[in-house]
Amino acid sequence: MWIVDPVDGTREYGEERTDWAVHVAMAVNGAPVLGAVALPGLDLVLRSDQPGEVPPAPEVLRMVVSRTRPAPEATGVAEKIGAELVPMGSAGAKAMAILRGEADIYLHSGGQYEWDSCAPAAVALGWGLHASRIDGSTLVYNQTDVYMPDLLICRPEHAEMVLAVAAAITA
Q1: I need a surface site. Which of 61, 76, 80, 111 has the fewest CB within 10 A?
Q2: What is the pLDDT of residue 163?
Q3: Binding site membership for Mg(2+): which residues?
């Protein structure tokens, strides 16, 4: 199943910002197996089939959050692990900020739809990052109900810590 979001971050697009994206992904048996996220404002396309090297994480981790409505779970996790919050627009821009070395963690618990996260998850996985629900379960696409309650994309070395803190906060 092809899952497409032609303008992820319509508010940012309308404000002529650079933190909006275009998503194209393919889910096979529910798994995000192929994806591309274009960041037209930056003249950049990141693809799952052309992985690059993710820059090393700094000493103080950075967590991208919604610039207009950061999720309480994300801000709570950031506080517990001492991460700096980086407000940003679209889901694709946030996820690609990790690949680009501008952030280290993207935790979203405010709900999205399959088209918001499938391509970013596919690209992140293709680049060797961790992508899951915030309870650690697998992301599953092409469902009858296309609502996705939450998402975690981060460097694999941070996944266990972020998932444990998220579990403690949401318990």
Answers
A1: 111
A2: 97
A3: 5, 8, 116
Other residues' Cβ atoms within 10 Å of the Cβ of residue 125: 20
Strands 151-154 and 130-132 come out as antiparallel
CB 77 within 8 A of CB 117: no
**Binding-site residues from annotation:** 5, 8, 116
**C-alpha to C-alpha distances, 151 to 8, 15, 40, nearest whole angstrom:** 16, 26, 23
28 touches 139 (CB < 8 A)? no
List, for residues 106-140, the tens digit of each pLDDT value: 999 988 999 999 999 999 999 999 999 999 999 99
Does residue 18 contact residue 11 with C-beta atoms inside 8 Å? no
Q: Which domains does the chain have, with CATH numbers?
A: 2-170 (3.40.190.80)
C-alpha 32/C-alpha 38 separation (Å) is 17
The pair of three-digit structure tokens given for residue 38, joined into one six-digit string:
């274009």
